[in-house]
Design goal:
The complex is a heterotrimer. Chain A is α/β, with parallel strands linked by helices. Chain A is built from 22 helices and 26 strands. Chain B is of the alpha/beta class. Chain B has 2 domains: 236 residues, no CATH class; 98 residues, abc type-2 transporter like fold (3-Layer(aba) Sandwich), CATH 3.40.1710. Chain B has a 4-stranded mixed β-sheet with strand order 2-1-3-4. Helix content of chain C is 68%, strand content 9%. Chain C contains 15 helices and 5 strands. The chains are: A alpha/beta, B alpha/beta, C alpha/beta. Chains in contact: A-B, A-C, B-C. The interface between A and C is medium-sized, with 34 and 26 residues.
């Protein structure tokens, strides 16, 4: 109930028709959009001030892209008033830079050609064009690749180029629709640093949609959108506070059991939500004291060991998840109807012990070596993560491991089979979900599931049960006869996952299963993956959401076709040199700019309202940082060492590698 | 103007990048030129026929030999005794001439001998040619053998103008130019347009302030450059291989080619604007373009043979006007006074196509 | 019963049901199989008309006597020529021919009547625009024949000693559509089967579902066969549609055996599907597939005799056309429909088409399979 009132007060805070609000660059009142019978956006109001970074977050199919289309002037609204820079968006198009979700680039054109085309379309005078071209390419570190084809760039570079294209006409408003989907962590941070600089230094107004809630933390204000409506608007802090909940970070060696206990056995409503988050549990409680004592009590009753319980602020992800739970849209977990009782027939032997095994795996395309000497060993019941940026060779490796792509050299064994990886019997034991959507868009959901269960030879009498499970898990009850093509991307991913596990595979390959999936669904995905692993399935998963990679038992980092680090998440994090320092400070952006002049820029990154700094020798470096910030009149509210996250580790590894490859700057 | 040029430069850059399309853009027209130019011959030469000579006289033998000496007929290899069943049914021969047993005796007796001719009517045009040839030969045979008493009262003096040798290539090849330039530039244009829609890059154009007209003109300009390349290549090659050349003022042809290219590119863009993906666009160009340019343009048979309601459609087929211009340039040679109407029609058609495409693109927005 | 249950449990069944589901959902495909073939048959049948009639004739009659007028009406009597205008002199007539306003010109000299009465042969001039060589050839043949006939009637005692009795077989009325429509039927079937089967595979490639399919236990032949069977049935439907249009609209006779015809059509559908699959396995994207299908189908159609007769092609192309499966099918269609041929006549075509079908399907299955690994 309390949340409801908060929501309302948040919305009324928007000043719709206040003439004094002249710095409202975007004003949206009562926006509606209907496609045939479907209402995509139903009554959205918000306004964005000049120079603001405004985030739009929400689950798949919430109406974010439609809102962007209308703001960008490429689609007519059904009803409502939309003003951008005091004009209808269509008339303001030249002052708007718009990054669509995909394909804003011509992949068969070079970087320069792409830029020149946009410059021409938007009538940028030649002199200014070359000025800006140089400026922005330098800003994005792309200046050396002018004549490279856009199609040959990595995902991160593509998005940076797309941003450059949007910037050459020097727009006052930037609309970015999920700009960092499919972008590796390093590029993601760089991208957001550029955005922060644009808004604070050039006064560009930015509206951005993102599925990454850590990115949303970097916005000035955030709107939480659900089902075509905005549920809540406010600064990240306001949103967090509006929740009225507190977060307990519980570190325990028995994560799985603890989560089980806390979710099912908690009788009072003191514990609102429990989530495994990397190597810790996030427990949301309404009152910190009673909550903590409750957790400790439950731990004691069940003979669990709690290392530490720390009180912290809730994160935006907590807000997101809790709000959507309140909407009743959180996907439920159903037990998979196992007909084989799990994978019990695992033999123990030498190398056939491994479900997936490769030694010195190589693959070249022409002169390009896509995969170099990759070793992978995955046991039954293990979740193995293959991490890395787009283009690092993850997909090529997966395709070789499951026999889709011939290898250039090396050894492979799959499910104990060494020679013929393509036999029908072997494939029956394998589940595979590829990066692209793998369902037939022109069939209904039910037809798709019937097809996959049939083609994998699931006995007819068991099919019904398994199909029902997939549909229930995806929350698609009653919509089974809908065309698959009409499902939003994230939902399709869920059905695709269901389709690839119906036959209870011994070995499961998941190539970027959660790309484009909202945080709630991502949680459900991992629950399911864990469940399969517990029942003896070997899982090989690739991802570039490093935060979810914490769920893997073991993992390898791939960079440019090579494995650079491997181990369990805690091993990898522990092997990082130096210390990560979290600084809470007044002007995060200014502090970041200042520090970046003094140290390599990857060492400093903005995380919501705080800075993360990687210091190799904290005892020596912390005083230097303190005095540096003090001399610039920046007040430090807190400074404390925190453990590395996997993302920090990944960035550190990649950057140190890049550094050792190129001679150090003087 | 700047936006048109930007669009045009971009299209050309993309076109240049796509090796396969680039290659096919020149290979396909040349292949078409060869196949149409060489293989479309309406009048059969060396027609296989069967002569069944029951007379076996000197006269009948002379008749048979004379028939083969016309260079139009060759004897068919057949066995059996019923020419209809054993030669025509099987398609071994296209016609059978049956000389009756009393052929020479009858003529000697001053009676009229009946010569039976069976013609396979499956191929209507050639059936007619065979019939005419055999009758004409029989007539000249009578005269040569002095079997006609008295001379003919009226002698027709036939004069074939423009193409006295009746070279079919002179008729077909200028038409092939029309068919090629109607199909391939429009195919490329349709692909370029529908690809942007299929891949969603069109959003970038929507999000800038480029107008529908500018977008179309930009693409048109780019493919006009490509089309001119194709035209020079194909027409040059065609002239060299089939030994044809301008017979008068080439200026109407050169200008007409430019206008015609614009019209066919506009047609392609129009289809590309309508279609949502490349496969539909190509189906559209292949079906509509081929049907119109091949069948309703007067390329193979005279336009006047097309029956009434369909004949109206021919008026909006650009290829029809271009083929008129092309045949005039290579065969007839009347120059401007003969073809200015066709040129005007092409301009009007190009303009109309452009406007329809612009109307469909409309306000450059996503459909609601 | 047990067999049926085993079939329903099989992967092949799942694959086939999926294909049928996709086909039923694909409005574009159904449209593609109904609309273009009908339109093509109609337009080809109506527009490709080699008849020589109603040729515009310009007459300069300097003689202007009943006899000269009779000659003119003899020329126009059977509809080949039609008097369009009567220019005052030869120069203007020539100019009109040059401009293409009229196709033929007739000049009757002032001395025409006088010459006829004397023993002197009268000479008339016939101008023919020979840009269209074929029409000009037939027109000049007609003109000579008519004038000869006319002059013979002037001297009835000159009975010609040989009379040719011409019988036109199979198509006595020389109805042009009877030639074109069966040819176009082959063309339509060729385009339909190859395009539809190409898109069935290329679509899976483009959307990435093929990769998923390859990871299932299904074998290459199962995947291909499951695609062939529904398309085959669908294309047989297209053949029926085309035959219906041919017989109902154009009254093309169906003299042969219907089942023989359907058998041959089935064989050709296999050839077409083979061509389509081959195209799809060779090309990397939809755009490539479409362009290469142009590259293949254009020569197939032009060298099939569907539009221009094979006999009139240069020798090289005639030999080349023997390797064109469509040529054989077009011959079969004309043979069965117009001539009523049976297998005893068409067995070489049956052998050739079977060979083509087997070879194409084998190669494409092989290529498909190697592509997967």
């Amino acid at each position: 109930m309390t949340q409801k009132t908060v929501t309302n007060s948040q919305i009324t805070e928007v000043r719709p028709t206040d003439p004094a609000a002249s710095d409202d660059v975007i004003r949206v009142i009562g926006l509606h959009k209907h496609y045939d019978r479907v209402a995509a956006v139903q009554g959205v109001d918000f306004s964005v001030r000049r120079g603001e970074v405004f985030g739009l977050i929400g689950p798949d199919g919430a109406g974010k892209t439609t809102t962007f289309h209308i703001l960008g002037g490429v689609m007519e609204a059904t009803a409502g008033d939309v003003q951008v820079l005091g004009q209808p968006p269509r008339d303001a198009r030249l002052k708007i830079g718009y990054l669509t979700q995909q394909f804003s680039l011509y992949l068969d054109l070079s970087i320069d050609e792409n830029l020149r085309y946009v410059g021409g379309l938007r009538q940028v005078p030649d002199r200014q064009f070359s000025e800006r071209r140089e400026k922005y390419l330098r800003l994005m570190n792309l200046e050396k690749f002018g004549d490279r084809l856009a199609g040959e760039l990595s995902g991160g570079m593509k998005q940076k180029l797309a941003l450059c294209c949007a910037l050459v006409s020097q727009p006052q408003v930037l609309l970015l629709d999920e700009p960092t989907t499919g972008v590796d962590p390093v590029s993601r941070r760089e991208f957001w640093d550029v955005l922060a600089a644009l808004s604070s230094e050039e006064g560009v107004t930015i509206v951005v949609a993102t599925p990454y809630l850590d990115e949303a933390e970097r916005c000035n204000r955030v709107a939480l959108m659900y089902d075509g409506q905005i549920q809540q608007i406010g600064t990240p802090a306001e949103l967090r506070n509006s929740l009225g909940l507190h977060r307990l970070e519980v570190h325990t060696p028995q994560l799985q059991a603890a989560e089980q206990v806390l979710t099912t056995l908690s009788e009072s409503d003191a514990i609102v939500d429990v989530q495994t988050f990397g190597d810790r549990l996030d427990v949301l409680v309404s009152d910190p004291q009673t909550g903590e004592s409750q957790v400790r009590e439950l731990f004691r009753q069940n003979h669990l060991q709690a290392d530490t319980i720390e009180l912290a602020e809730p994160t935006l992800e907590n807000v997101f998840v809790t709000r959507l739970r309140q909407q009743g849209s959180a996907p439920e977990f159903f037990e998979f109807p196992r007909s084989r009782g799990g994978n019990r027939n695992v033999t123990t032997g030498s190398s056939s012990d491994f479900a997936i095994y490769s030694h010195n795996l190589n693959r070249s395309f022409g002169s390009f070596r896509a995969v170099k000497n990759v070793n992978v060993e995955v046991r039954y019941g293990e979740i193995f993560g293959l991490l890395g940026a787009n283009g690092a060779g993850k997909t090529t490796t997966i395709k070789m491991l499951c026999g889709l792509l011939p290898i250039s050299s090396g050894d492979i064994s799959l499910g104990g089979e060494r020679g013929n990886l393509r036999s029908s019997e072997l494939r029956r034991r394998i589940g595979y979900m590829s990066q692209k959507f793998t369902l037939y868009d022109d069939l209904t959901i039910l037809q798709n599931l019937e097809f996959y269960s049939g083609v994998y030879g699931v006995p007819r009498r068991l099919r019904r049960e398994k199909i029902d499970w997939v549909i229930a898990t995806c929350g698609l009850d009653g919509r089974e006869t809908m065309l698959t093509g009409q499902l939003p991307g994230g939902w399709k991913q869920r059905v695709a996952f269901g389709a690839s596990v119906m036959h209870e595979p011994d070995i499961l390959f998941l190539d970027e299963p959660t790309s484009g999936v909202d945080p709630l669904a991502r949680r459900q995905f991992w629950k399911l993956i864990n469940d399969f692993a517990r029942n003896g399935t070997a899982v090989l998963v690739t991802t570039h959401y490093l935060e979810e990679a914490e769920q893997c038992n073991r993992m390898s980092f791939m960079v440019a076709g090579e494995i650079v680090t491997e181990g369990s998440p805690s091993q990898i994090k522990a092997s990082q040199p130096g210390q990560l320092i979290e600084v809470v400070i007044d002007q995060t952006q200014a502090a970041s700019n200042l520090l970046k002049q003094q140290m390599e820029s990857w060492r400093v990154s903005i995380f919501a309202d705080r800075l993360h700094i990687v210091l190799d020798d904290p005892d020596r470096d912390i005083p230097i940082v303190r005095s540096l910030l003090k001399s610039a009149n920046l007040t430090i509210h807190s400074l404390r060492p925190i453990p590395f996250s996997l993302e920090d580790a990944f960035i550190g590894v990649v950057q140190r590698l890049a550094q050792s490859a190129t001679p150090e700057e003087p | 103007m700047k936006r048109i040029l930007a669009q045009c430069t971009k299209e050309l850059a993309q076109f240049r990048r796509d090796r396969l399309t680039l290659a096919l853009a020149f290979i396909l027209p040349v292949m078409t030129l060869f196949i149409f130019g060489f293989a479309i011959r309406l009048e059969a030469k060396n027609i296989a026929i069967v002569v069944q000579d029951f007379d076996r006289s000197n006269l009948s033998r002379r008749y048979t030999e004379g028939l083969y000496q016309t260079n139009q007929f060759v004897p068919a290899q057949w066995s059996g005794d019923d020419p209809m069943q054993d030669a025509l049914d099987r398609g071994i021969a296209k016609a059978a001439v049956i000389i009756p047993p009393d052929f020479s005796r009858g003529i000697a007796a001053g009676k009229t001998s009946q010569l039976q001719v069976l013609i396979d009517g499956t191929d209507v045009n050639n059936a007619r040619v065979i019939k005419n040839s055999i009758q004409a030969f029989t007539r000249s045979f009578l005269q040569d053998q002095n079997l006609m008493s008295g001379t003919s009262k009226i002698t027709p003096r036939l004069r074939l103008w423009f193409n006295p040798g009746r070279r079919e290539s002179l008729y077909i090849v200028p038409g092939v130019f029309g068919v090629i330039l109607a199909i391939y530039p429009s195919l490329l244009a349709a692909l370029a347009m529908s690809r942007e829609k299929e891949q969603g890059t069109i959003l970038q154009a929507y999000a800038s302030s480029i107008s529908a007209a500018e977008l179309l003109l930009g693409k048109c300009l780019a493919y006009l450059v490509v089309g001119i390349g194709q035209a020079i290549f194909v027409i040059g090659l065609g002239c060299a291989i089939f030994r044809i050349w301008f017979v008068g003022d080439p200026s109407p042809f050169l200008i007409g080619t430019g206008i015609f290219l614009i019209a066919s590119i506009m047609f392609g863009l129009l289809i590309g604007v309508r279609a949502n993906n490349r496969s539909v666009a190509v189906q559209g160009v292949a079906t509509a373009g081929f049907l119109l340019a091949l069948l309703l343009s007067g390329f193979i048979y005279p336009l006047s043979n097309i029956p009434f309601p369909l004949s109206l459609v021919t008026n909006i087929v650009p290829a029809r006007y271009f083929i008129e211009i092309s045949r005039d340039a290579f065969v007839r040679g009347t120059g401007w006074e003969g073809v200015w109407v066709a040129q005007v029609c092409l301009v009007v058609l190009a303009f109309v196509l452009f406007n329809i495409a612009r109307r469909i693109l409309g306000r450059m927005q996503l459909p609601g | 019963m047990k067999l049926l249950r085993r079939l329903i449990e099989s992967r092949f069944w799942a694959l086939t049901v999926k294909e049928i589901g996709q086909i039923l959902r694909n409005k574009q495909l159904i449209f593609l199989l109904v609309f273009p073939p009908t339109i093509q048959l109609l337009i080809f049948g109506l527009a490709l008309n080699p008849d020589v009639q109603n040729l515009k004739l310009g007459v300069v009659d300097y003689s202007n006597t009943p006899m000269s007028r009779e000659l003119v009406s003899a020329l126009t009597a059977n509809g080949v020529f039609r008097v369009d205008r009567a220019p005052p002199n030869e120069q203007i007539l020539g100019e009109q021919v040059r401009r293409g306003e009229i196709i033929t010109g007739l000049v009757i000299p002032p001395t025409f009547n006088r010459d006829l009465k004397s023993d002197h042969p009268a000479e008339v001039q016939v101008l023919i625009d020979a840009v269209d060589a074929n029409t000009a050839g037939i027109a000049s043949g007609y003109a000579a024949q008519i004038i000869n006939h006319f002059s013979q009637q002037l001297a009835p005692q000159n009975q010609a000693p040989i009379e040719t009795q011409v019988t036109i077989l199979y198509n006595p009325g020389l109805i042009s559509s009877w030639f074109i429509v069966p040819g176009v039927l082959g063309l339509v079937l060729n385009l339909g089967s190859s395009l539809v089967s190409t898109s069935a595979i290329v679509r899976e490639k483009d959307t990435g579902t093929l990769e998923q399919l390859l990871m299932t236990p299904a074998a290459a032949w199962e995947i291909i066969l499951a695609k062939v069977v529904p398309l085959f049935v669908l294309l047989l439907g297209e053949v029926m549609l085309a035959v219906t249009v041919a017989t109902l609209v154009f009254h093309v006779p169906f003299r042969g055996n219907f089942f023989l015809f359907m058998g041959f059509s089935g064989l050709y559908i296999c050839v077409g599907i083979g061509i389509g699959f081959l195209l799809a396995t060779v090309s990397r994207s939809q755009q490539q597939a479409i362009l290469t299908s142009f590259f293949i189908n254009l020569p197939l159609i032009q060298l099939s005799g569907a539009i221009a007769p094979i006999e009139s092609m240069p020798r090289f192309f005639q030999i080349l056309s023997l390797f064109n499966p469509l040529r054989h099918y077009v011959k079969v269609v004309r043979g069965v429909l117009l001539k009523g041929n049976g297998l005893e006549v068409l067995y070489p075509e049956a052998i050739a088409l079977t060979a083509f079908a087997v070879a194409l399907l084998a190669i494409s299955t092989y290529k498909f399979r190697t592509q997967l690994s």
